[in-house]
Design goal:
This protein has 8 helices and 6 strands, in the order βαβαββαβαβαααα. The protein is an alpha/beta fold and 226 residues long. It has 2 domains: 166 residues, Alpha/beta knot, CATH 3.40.1280; 31 residues, no CATH class. α5 runs antiparallel to α6.
Length: 226
């Protein structure tokens, strides 16, 4: 797990990397590398190196990333990013009979949005999303809504769907659960989503002056999908 001995999570990782046919490409915003409680290292520790490839950056073009460009043009490649044009991954997986590649953007929601829309390569793969019926277990970091998931959780759910094996999700979530439990035992507080805080009158930060951001908060309170 590459963590200090006192906070080692290796006992919660699988003894051997999980055998999966689906390959993940994690597109990581540079700022994620400096976060102490990031989840991608735990994800990578659960999978073979050739099934979890991490690319760090903001801009990706064909000249600098020819391998990624080839992957994005492959008809079996999917990109996990919610939106009006995205299909549910469960539906796509039922029709897929061959090995697939799933691209997942790792960063805050604003960082992920910037990467997705400013890199034309990421508009080539088929866009998919997860059904919004799963609550995040990453309770030591604030999420925009109750159903926003960490990168590790997205990967765990996506792999379990593609591989048709529910135990994959449980195995990958195990170290995340241990991480959160350890942090809570040592003084960390449970972080409710911004949606939960707004609806229950618990949001204690100044309201944004930007009209667009203020409108997004209003949509959260009124259960409107953003």
């Amino acid at each position: 797990c590459s963590r200090p001995q006192k906070v080692c999570l290796c006992p919660f990782l699988p003894v051997h990397p999980l055998k999966v046919s689906t390959c993940l490409y994690i597109i990581q915003h540079p700022a994620e590398g400096s976060r102490v409680l990031r989840t991608v290292p735990l994800l990578a520790a659960c999978l073979p190196p050739d099934k979890c490839k991490i690319l760090v950056g903001r801009r990706f073009n064909e000249d600098r990333y020819p391998e990624l460009a080839t992957v994005c043009r492959n008809p079996n490649t999917l990109i996990l990013y919610p939106g009006a044009e995205a299909n549910n991954l469960e539906d796509v997986a039922e029709m897929s009979s061959s090995s697939s590649v799933i691209i997942i953007i790792d960063g805050t929601w604003s960082q992920a949005k910037d990467i997705f829309y400013k890199n034309s390569l990421f508009r080539l793969p088929r866009q998919v999303q997860l059904k919004p019926n799963i609550s995040s277990q990453y309770v030591i970091r604030t999420q925009p809504t109750n159903t926003c998931l960490s990168t590790l959780e997205c990967a765990a759910v996506a792999l379990s769907i593609m591989e048709k094996n529910k135990s994959i999700q449980e195995t990958i979530l195990h170290p995340l659960q241990a991480l959160c439990s350890f942090q809570l035992q040592h003084g960390a507080q449970i972080h409710h989503s911004k949606e939960h805080l707004l609806k229950n009158g618990l949001y204690d930060k100044p309201m944004p002056k930007n009209k667009r951001k203020l409108r997004r908060m209003e949509l959260l309170v009124n259960n409107v999908k953003i």
